[in-house]
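ok, trying the design again with the full structure, not the truncated one.
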C-alpha cells in the first residue's frame, strides 16, 4: 500500500526526494564531525587520563625592583638589598653567568618553598603542560622493522622536576615508576604511550628497545632521494595513553627529557587528594601569603586551577568560539531544513486533501491515514539518504577521508571511529534517524490538519 501510494505520487515526491538527497550530502560531514567530537570528548577517556581537580598551574616571574632615592643611581630589590647600576664584574658569582646562577638558585628556592607546603604533594617546573600547546608530529618506526612506521606527537619534559608524578601520568606494569622516569630518564631515552608501543611492536613491554625518527620533508626527499633517519631513541618507559589536548582525541605520543632553563618557567603543582583546591588557591594568592610565593628576586606571579589555565589559552578560546559559531550555523541550517521540508510536505498534502477526504468518507481512521503518509515519508527518506550517502562516499574517497572519515585518530584499541566501514555505517544510521525526525516533524502539522478536516470540507475544490 505504501509503495503503491509512493509510486502514484511520484511527481510530487520527486522534489522531496531531490531535496533530501541534497540535505544528506551537505549535512553528512557536519553530523560526522559532531558525533565523533562528542564521542571523543565525553566517551573516549584513555586509561591514563590524569586527575585534574587537584592540579594547579603557576607562572613565575622576576620581582620588579623598587627605586630608592637614598641610594642615588642604585635600585632597591624586592628583598630590600641594593644593587648598583654599574656593569657586573667577572669572577665567581659575578658577571652574566653569576646573575644567571643566582636567578636559577632563586627559582629552585621558590620551587622547594612551594613543595614544602603541607597541602602540596608534588611540584616542579614544566616546559610543556599536557592539555594545550604546540606539538611536533614526527614519523617513527621500530629500529628492527622500518615497515612498522607511524606518526606521533613529541613534546619535552624537564628532568628532576617530578613531571610524571605532578602531571599524573601512569606508567604501565613493567615500566620504571613515575619517580624514576622523572629523575633518571637518560637524555637519549624517550617515554612513549602504550598505544604507540602496541603499534610499533605489538606489545607494550618494550623498555630497552629502540625506535628511530624519520624525516619525510621535501628537502630530504629532494636531496637524499628518500626519507632519512634523523635520530635514534631508546625506550626508557611506557605510560598509559593520555589526551594531548582536551578537545582532541588521544594519539601516539612521545615524551623526551630535556635540561633547559627559562627566565619565567611554568610550574605544575599537585595537591593532596584531601585538599580543597579552591580554598588552597584562595589562601595562596591572598596578599597575606605573598611571602609563600616569593624567593629572592623570583615570585609566583599567578596560580590557577588546571581547568582555568586551559580555558585561558587563546587557542582554546578560539576553538570554543569556532565551535559556537559552527553550532549556530548548524542550528540555522537545520532550521532551514525543517522549514523547507515543512513547506514541501505542506504543499504536497494540500494536493492530497481530497484523497484523504475520500478515505475518511469510506471510514478510514485518522491513525491509519497518518501511518500511511508517515510510512511514505520514511521510505522516501531512506531511499534519498542512501543515494546521498553514496554520493558523499565518493567525496570521502577522493578527499582521502576513508581512514576514519573526517576525524581520523589513533588509539591502543581500535574502535568504530578508526574502522572505516563501521564508522561510515554508524554515521549513515545516525544521519537517517536525524533526517527521519526532521521529516516527521515537518509532516506532523499538515497531516494533523488534513486528517481532522471533515470529509465534506476536504472534498471541496477550494479546500
Amino acid at each position: 500500500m505504501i509503495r503503491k501510494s509512493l509510486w502514484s505520487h511520484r511527481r510530487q515526491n520527486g522534489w522531496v526526494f531531490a531535496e533530501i538527497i541534497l540535505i544528506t550530502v551537505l549535512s553528512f560531514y557536519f553530523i560526522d564531525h559532531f558525533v565523533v567530537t562528542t564521542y571523543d570528548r565525553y566517551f573516549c577517556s584513555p586509561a591514563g587520563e590524569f586527575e585534574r581537580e587537584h592540579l594547579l598551574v603557576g607562572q613565575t616571574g622576576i620581582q620588579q625592583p623598587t627605586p630608592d632615592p637614598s641610594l642615588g643611581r642604585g635600585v632597591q630589590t624586592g628583598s630590600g638589598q641594593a644593587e648598583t647600576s654599574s656593569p657586573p664584574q667577572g669572577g665567581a658569582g659575578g658577571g652574566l653567568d653569576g646573575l644567571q646562577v643566582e636567578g636559577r638558585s632563586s627559582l629552585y628556592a621558590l620551587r622547594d618553598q612551594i613543595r614544602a607546603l603541607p597541602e602540596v604533594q608534588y611540584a616542579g617546573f614544566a616546559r610543556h603542560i599536557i592539555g594545550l600547546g604546540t606539538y611536533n608530529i614526527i614519523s617513527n618506526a621500530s629500529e628492527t622493522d622500518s615497515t612498522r612506521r607511524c606518526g606521533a606527537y613529541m613534546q619535552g619534559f624537564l628532568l628532576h622536576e617530578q613531571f610524571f608524578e605532578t602531571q599524573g601520568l601512569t606508567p604501565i606494569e613493567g615500566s620504571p615508576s613515575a619517580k624514576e622516569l622523572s629523575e633518571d630518564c637518560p637524555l637519549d631515552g624517550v617515554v612513549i604511550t602504550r598505544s604507540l608501543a602496541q603499534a610499533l611492536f605489538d606489545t607494550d613491554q618494550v623498555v630497552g628497545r629502540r625506535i628511530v625518527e624519520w624525516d619525510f620533508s621535501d628537502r630530504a626527499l629532494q636531496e637524499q632521494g628518500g626519507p632519512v633517519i634523523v635520530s635514534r631513541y631508546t625506550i626508557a618507559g611506557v605510560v598509559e595513553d593520555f589526551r594531548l589536548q582536551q578537545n582532541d582525541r588521544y594519539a601516539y605520543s612521545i615524551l623526551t627529557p630535556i635540561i633547559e632553563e627559562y627566565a619565567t618557567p611554568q610550574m605544575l603543582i599537585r595537591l593532596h587528594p584531601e585538599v580543597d583546591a579552591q580554598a588552597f588557591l584562595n589562601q595562596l594568592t591572598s596578599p597575606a601569603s605573598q611571602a609563600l610565593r616569593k624567593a629572592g628576586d623570583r615570585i609566583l606571579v599567578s596560580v590557577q586551577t588546571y581547568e582555568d589555565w586551559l580555558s585561558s589559552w587563546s587557542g582554546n578560546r578560539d576553538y570554543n568560539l569556532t565551535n559556537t559559531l559552527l553550532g549556530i550555523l548548524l542550528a540555522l541550517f537545520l532550521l532551514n531544513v525543517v522549514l523547507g521540508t515543512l513547506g514541501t510536505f505542506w504543499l504536497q498534502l494540500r494536493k492530497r486533501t481530497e484523497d484523504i477526504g475520500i478515505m475518511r468518507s469510506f471510514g478510514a481512521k485518522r491513525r491509519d491515514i497518518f501511518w500511511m503518509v508517515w510510512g511514505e515519508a520514511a521510505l522516501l527518506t531512506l531511499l534519498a539518504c542512501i543515494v546521498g550517502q553514496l554520493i558523499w562516499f565518493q567525496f570521502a574517497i577522493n578527499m582521502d577521508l576513508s581512514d576514519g572519515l573526517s576525524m581520523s585518530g589513533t588509539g591502543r584499541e581500535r574502535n568504530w571511529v578508526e574502522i572505516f566501514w563501521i564508522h561510515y555505517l554508524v554515521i549513515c544510521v545516525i544521519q537517517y534517524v536525524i533526517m527521519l525526525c526532521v521529516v516527521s516533524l515537518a509532516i506532523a502539522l499538515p497531516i494533523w490538519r488534513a486528517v481532522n478536516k471533515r470529509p465534506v470540507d476536504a472534498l471541496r475544490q477550494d479546500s
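Keeping the full-length input from now on. The two ends are 25 Å apart (CA to CA).
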